[in-house]
Amino acid sequence: MNYIRYYHNPNSNISSNCFTNIDRKLSLKGHQPPMNIYENKEEFRLELAIPGYKKSEIEINLDQKILKISSKEEKDKKNSKETIICRKVQFSKQAFSRSLQLPESINLKAINAIIEDGLLKIFLPKNKETEMKQTRQIFIS
Q1: Is the pTM of this model over 0.85?
Q2: Which residue among 26, 36, 67, 105 is least packed, with the fewest CB closer than 10 Å?
Q3: 44 backbone dihedrals φ, ψ, rounded to 5°
Q4: pLDDT greater than 80 at residue 40
Q5: What is d(CA 44, CA 80) in angstroms, rounded to the nearest whole number?
């Protein structure tokens, strides 16, 4: 698969409003992990950078064409008698939520996800029927 950055393919089956980040539209504030979207002939692939999160801490829900990816903030539950003084904090594990509107061409029943090396990868296979419907011959009258 070749990666092309910031390339708009006019023949792509993604319309301008697909993969819209709904949280930004609603002006919700908070941490959102960076995300890349890749496309090939068979599928779209979303990759979210979420280092340090476990599989059990991530929740992915699909409501019609809205994909919601979220986590919950976990507090340390250890009751330690030792007092730890934090001198500097440059990163922390925060709760997040991202909601995306999916394009019509996605096969909703075949969506799957994996976490590996700090990346959450969500595979969104395309409908074969949709691809066939978009390819047609136009006759000149």
Answers
A1: no
A2: 26
A3: -105, 150
A4: yes
A5: 46
Backbone torsions φ then ψ of 57, nearest 5 degrees = -90, -10
d(CA 32, CA 97): 6
DSSP letters, 75-109, are ------SS-------S------EEEEEPPTTB-GG
**pLDDT recorded at residue 100:** 92
- Distance between CA atoms of residues 124 and 108, nearest Å: 8
Q: State the residue for tokens 């075949």.
A: 110
Helix (H, G, I), strand (E, B) or coil at 51: coil
Sign, Cα dihedral of 124, 125, 126, 129? negative
**Closest-CA residue to 101 (of 134, 58, 67):** 67
